[in-house]
Amino acid sequence: MSDLTEADAHIVVVGAGQAGLQAAETLRAGGFEGRVTLVGSEPHAPYHRPPLSKGWLSEALDARQLAIRDVSALERKNIDLRVASHVAEIDANARAVRLQDDSRIAYSGLVLATGATPRMLGNAAPADGTICALRSREDASAIAKGLRNCLQARLPLVVIGGGFIGLEVAASARKLGADVVVLEAAPRLLQRALSRELSDWYARLHASHGVTLVLDARIDKVETSGSTAQVRLIDGRRWEAGLVLVGVGIIPNDELARRAGIACDNGIIVDACSRTSIAGIVAAGDCTVCRLPDGSMRRLESVQSAVEQGRAAAYTLLGMEKPFTGTPWFWSDQYDAKLQIAGLSRSADRSVARGDMAGKSFSIFHYAVDRLVAVDSINAARDHVIARQLIGVGVSPTIDQVSDISFDLGRLRPA
Ligand SMILES: Cc1cc2nc3c(=O)[nH]c(=O)nc-3n(C[C@H](O)[C@H](O)[C@H](O)COP(=O)(O)OP(=O)(O)OC[C@H]3O[C@@H](n4cnc5c(N)ncnc54)[C@H](O)[C@@H]3O)c2cc1C
């Protein structure tokens, strides 16, 4: 790929979100002097999505604070940003993309960073602002309007899905004074991401803020009439809502890639260097699924992953291998609880708490046999930072060291 450093090379990045922006900027940081075009379907320059469910809903953040980068900063880096432009097709043989307006852009390297789309329930399509999902600024504006409707009509926000997005919106809505009902199909909240003890802790946190939680909830029907919606469970319980938020996960936007013949499996399949099955095309962020060296597949839907994969994708196109192999991390803000997760707890068989779980600052350390694989910290930023480093270098504190709050885990960091 060394030809890509020549001034006539042109790298096209599809998707002007977190991963796409990172790829474009890393190309410049890596010394690429050719053309870089960043094409995004949304009408905005790249912006931060995490605040949409947090400060953006409950506080007055303005659009400038949401922007990841000033447009002028992109101009200075000679990145050609095209907003409100949707790539409709990739012609991998001709090395060109076709936009919805039928114009074509030839590329010498292509980055796919198309993100994901919220999953909806079969019979609950977004309708009249009373049934919403949350991904974009426009979605967040519709939710803010729906919450005003809840307050005026004295009807609750009904959240379908007790995952991070649903629970963050629930917390923001409570802050605004709206009644909130959370309906979760699983027997506990955040089942995919957290251990049982932390799920239970979150259930108590939301209950203490007045949220009605219904676990094992089986949705029968969601209907709308005028400015209200009705949600009915199979067991007959029903709620009239001023707004229904569906937060049941995302579907990776891999259709464009699939149609171009790129291997996909619930996401564009990439390796740690963000390579797809077609040479010269790399992919990054929520649209991807990463094949690990042992053949298993890993999906990470987080800002860190989008950034690290975007970076790896750019370096791959520049002919430099800088794989994303670091410790995954993630955060969530609900009420006054900041959760920070380092590592992945799926393989864990034992957990140890550090600090007082009844209080508001503690961590849970997860072990697979004797190896530390993940740490979930609530309002314990130092634990999180140290844990990330320890997991990264493969150092595992003993159970005694972890449980002893007076023991400084920082001592275990290699010099
Ligand atoms: C409400 C909310 C809260 C979140 N909170 C957190 C959090 O607290 N912590 C955390 O780590 N992560 C959080 N996330 C997840 C994080 O924001 C995502 O993982 C990250 O934004 C993914 O970046 P991306 O670039 O892959 O996708 P996106 O940011 O979605 O960007 C993809 C872009 O590609 C565009 N696109 C798609 N198809 C095309 C096409 N054919 N042509 C042109 N453009 C196209 C899309 O319109 C979109 O703008 C949150 C997400 C949401 C929605």
Helix content: 25-40%
Largest sheet: 5 strands, parallel
Radius of gyration: 22 Å
Structural class: alpha/beta
User: What's the β-strand tally?
Assistant: 26
In round numbers, the mean pLDDT is 94
Bound molecules: flavin-adenine dinucleotide
Helical stretch tally: 11
- Strand percentage, roughly? 25-35%
- Span of the ends, CA to CA: 38 Å
Low-confidence regions: none
Silhouette = globular
Within the largest sheet, what's the order of strands? 3-2-1-7-19
Summarize the structure.
This protein is α/β, with parallel strands linked by helices. The chain has helices at about 20-30, 55-60, 65, 70-75, 135-155, 165-175, 195-210, 255-260, 305-315, 380-395, 400-405, and strands at about 10-15, 35-40, 80, 85-90, 95-100, 105, 110, 115-120, 130, 155-160, 180-185, 210-215, 220-225, 230-235, 240, 245, 250, 270, 280-285, 290, 295-300, 330-335, 335-345, 350-355, 360-370, 370-380.
